[in-house]
Amino acid sequence: MKNVSGGNYEYQKVKSVWTRLDRMRRTITETDTSVAKRSWRAVVDNFELDVPREVIAMSSGMAVGAGKSGCMCGALNGGIMALGMIFGRTEQNGPKDPKVVKCMELTHELHDYFRDANGKHSNCCRVLTREFDMGAGEHKEQCIRFTGIAAKKVAEIIVREKGLKNID
After folding, report:
1. If 34 and its partner were Cys, which of 10, 21, 47, 63 is the partner (CB 3.0–4.6 Å)?
2. pTM
3. For residue 34, what pLDDT band results from cuts at 50, 70 and 90?
């Protein structure tokens, strides 16, 4: 659907975004353990972005709150990466660059939405998973849900900001 050309994307249509995000979320969770990668891939795959898989590999270290440090939730990190890819800059033009300002606004919107929508009023992996035995995999269902929250909000932002029509 989109072609990458010097960091610019051409938008033509959005095919069943919400349905496809849900299907992708269910499929990815069985094969991938990184919520950052899941969020990122859900957006890339569902908007059919022409992105090399090596770019998606950049999110590998974000698992379990960035290198298992328990910091920012990977689902949110992956969503931020997707927003940066669509709305971010490719040239250093200072902090007042309109692309920087817009990307920061959208990232802040995602950050606050995710914190409020996840039911725990936090973006910290350590806080979000404190009641789970991570080694036993008890957290997976919650992480699947968080991936959906982040990916859907990113899709909503992209659709809104790019003036796309959802054809669901």
Report:
1. 63
2. 0.75
3. low
Q: Is 92 exposed, middle or buried (0-12, 13-18, 19+ CB in 10 A)?
A: exposed
Residue spans of beta strands (DSSP E) within the chain: 4-5, 8-9
Average pLDDT over residues 121-131: 91
First to last CA, the chain: 16
**Amino acid code (one letter) for 38:** R
pLDDT in tens, 40-58: 677 777 777 777 777 777 7
Q: What residues are paired with 126 via a beta bridge?
A: none
Question: Confidence band (pLDDT; 50, 70, 90) for 161?
Answer: very high
Tokens read off for 2: 């989109």
> Which residue in the block uniquely carries the two structure tokens 């931020």?
80
Question: For residues 158 and 138, what is the distance between their CA atoms, to the nearest angstrom?
Answer: 32
Instruction: Indicate the burial class of 93 (C-beta count within 10 angstroms; 0-12, 13-18, 19 or more).
Output: exposed
> CA 90, CA 116: separation in Å to the nearest integer?
31
Long-range CB contacts (within 8 A, 24+) of 25-32: 25/144, 25/147, 25/148, 25/151, 26/144, 28/147, 29/140, 29/143, 29/144, 29/147
pLDDT of residue 67: 64
